[in-house]
Amino acid sequence: MAQPESLAELLNGRRAAIDATLPAAGFVLGWLAGGRSIWAGAAVAVACALAVCWWRLRHGDKPRAVLIGLLGVCVAALIALRTGKAEDFFLLQLLSNAASALAWAVSIVLRWPLLGLVVGGVLGQKTRWRRDPALLRSYGLASWVWVLQYVIRLAIFLPLYAAGQVVALGVARIALTWPLIAACLAVSWWVIRKTLPADHPGLRHPQTN
């Protein structure tokens, strides 16, 4: 199988991970520097998100994708301000991970694995990859790695959230974002390469005949 690109290169996981961790780190730092003030943490988090938006827009990213990230940070900050609990800044992330784990698992069972939809979208294939039985099977198997990623996050975040460990939640957010995404991309790519037939032309060339 001739395949020069990895999933990490196709999906640009590093950039997304950095964008996700900066506002969370800013919230914790602002919260601590402000004497455990949620307002201070929220202000720094939103400032970090705005800086990320400015940087991404300046480098040609799509406004819609950039603004969705900013909206997520603003909603997380509003939740914490509304409840008066700093740990609730991470509540949206907890819910997102739970929903993602469920969505990825259901997509595999329905034979519409989300990894295939994501990669197919990036490659401009739409759903043509589904007509390739080998690719469909490999995407399904590799998608279980992503389910596991979300389950691992939940297993670590939930006890910290229940205990109100704000600093630990921030550290976990950083530690479990880029390193875990990198591991997930590497392992799911390994699964695809191992499960596709040796003569398969690769992700860019679904065999639809």
TrEMBL record:
Keyword NADP included in the entry's annotation: no
Residue intervals passing through the bilayer: 38-57, 64-81, 101-123, 144-164, 170-192
Keywords: Membrane, Transmembrane, Transmembrane helix
KW Membrane (keyword) present: yes
Organism superkingdom: Bacteria
InterPro entries: UCP010219
Protein name according to UniProt: DUF3159 domain-containing protein
Organism: Paractinoplanes tereljensis
Organism taxonomic ancestry: Bacteria, Bacillati, Actinomycetota, Actinomycetes, Micromonosporales
